[in-house]
What does this fold into?
Amino acid sequence: MNDSKTFIYDGSFNGFLTAVFIAFEEKVHVADIQKNSVSQNGLFSDTETIFTSIEKAKRVWNGIQAKSSSAIKNIYFAYLSETKGIELLLYRYIRKLFASERSIHSDYSDGIVLKISQLAKSVGREKHRMEAFVRFQLTQDEVYFANIEPDFDVLPLISKHFRSRYADQQWIIYDVKRKYGLFYDLQRVEIISLDSQEIHTNSIRKSDTFSGEEYDYQDLWNNYFKSTNIKSRINRKLHAQHVPKRYWKYLSEKKEAV
It folds into this structure.
């Protein structure tokens, strides 16, 4: 009898943790763990649909955290990398974590541990870049709006930063790549989806979506940015390393460079 299974879950992190719980509970060989939006039937494994359970997800989360606070951070960050096959890789990492009496999160001689650590660091760098490079624009509705297009799904990681920094303003940060965003209404942050297909970049062309006052501020900032640059000291290669070109279309100070 073939007890190898492919778990299909709803695509949420809690759904993934629920799948991990079921895998341990049923003591089966896990062939794969796949999002229901991209699932493919395995040739040599049965499939099982996982229904997300917050209680089961919390038990896995608390169990991992009890083993290693560093490991739980690496797991969450690596999951947000959206790397193909990340679920199965993380499941194997978690199995190693629970099977070992010592902490494994820094055992880089293990290929799986090394890969998870590398992915977590990449996501962490993208998180910090988004916190630095988000540029809000004031809309006619008095809501500050920003488009982003990060390499990884870092919106859940930057929510706390912007809620703390802009606690007295309503704002939306919208990921145009993943088609969802965060809306802060002065009390809480909610996940939203927008019907609009328009992507607001730092185009010189003005949009009716934003207030005239907003463009006045952008012009001031752009002029300040240009006036503080010393052309003879510009190191374009170094600048591109610190501010990668893929972010430029959302930076108001880069209007003439894009």
Residues 44 and 220 are 63 Å apart (CA to CA). The mean pLDDT is 84.
